[in-house]
Amino acid sequence: MAKKYIAKLFISGVIEEKNEDYCQKWLLEKIEELGEDKKNVALVLFINSPGGSVYESDEVYLAVKKYREDTKRPVYAYFANLAASGGYYIGCSAQKIIANRNTLTGSIGVIANKFVDITEFLTKHGIKSETIHAGRNKIMGSLDVPVTDEQRAIMQSIADECYEQFTKIVAESRNMDIEKVKEIADGRVYSALQAKSNSLVDEVMTFDEAIDFLKESEFKDKEYKAEVKDFKYKPKKSLKNLLKGSVESLAPFSELSAVLSFASNKVRYPAFLYEQPQAIL
After folding, report:
1. 49: enclosing H helix or E strand
2. Does residue 222 contact residue 40 with C-beta atoms inside 8 Å?
3. Which of 79, 131, 161, 172 could form a disulfide with 83, with the two C-beta atoms 3.0–4.6 Å apart?
4. First vs last C-alpha separation in the chain
């Protein structure tokens, strides 16, 4: 007879449709499967992510909320070394948030777009570019067209709307006043102890301590012995993935290729994204 178990669901890497560490389809399907499995008695989201797309972050948040509502089982979030932006957003779906003492979290903010204008570079090198279009903002964000004040306002309105959604979710999840949330939601990252003092996390402890805390808080005697079972996305090996590392190691061969490489290095926007900081000892 299969034993009851606590699901440790890994949410790692940039939150987007799919990459080497993350797969949205796999994650959503796994949450649904766990909800249908009667042997599953609790869910722990093990989050180690700098953030990512608003769309995917919200999808996972809603899926976990549905798991909680449908199953009535406890859901805890455990923050590893980084749980920022979209990672924190997903963590808000849990009834308790626990951080490792070395966790960096928060970064509650939104990036709506990144404008890169290389018109002066193109002129300097005698390069001309023209896009035939209808609608004055249709090619907004193109490298060869300067950004206008109207376009800045358009993208700012999108960022503001997403920010309102984000902070409202934090306020509801953490039982905080929305104005208090906005005071601390300026995009900065917080240490684990700073996050706890600002009510962004509930406890600071190791993962094993977090499991014991969950069992003591949520379970009856027979469920206290439930094992922890890992669920982690494992991408299939392919020739494309094997060659990717070799291609990325090649240095840019010209000034133009370097500029274009930088300019095209985008995530899907709007996004909850934070550049991962490093603690050097």
Report:
1. strand 40-49
2. no
3. 79
4. 48
DSSP reduced 3-state for 272:
strand
Gyration radius from the chain CA atoms: 22
Instruction: List, by residue number, the catalytic residues.
Output: 85, 138
- 12, two tokens: 């790692």
Helix ranges (H only) for 97-206 are 119-124, 149-174, 178-184, 192-197
Tens digits of pLDDT across the chain (281 residues): 679 999 999 999 999 999 999 999 999 999 999 999 999 999 999 999 999 999 999 999 999 999 999 999 999 999 999 999 999 999 999 999 999 999 999 999 999 888 999 999 999 999 999 999 999 999 998 999 999 999 999 999 999 999 999 999 999 999 999 999 999 999 999 999 999 999 999 999 999 999 999 999 999 776 678 899 999 999 987 666 555 555 444 444 445 444 444 444 444 456 665 444 433 44
Which residue is it, tokens 């994650």?
Answer: 27
Reading the block at residue 85, the tokens are 């932006």
Say which DSSP state 236 is in.
P
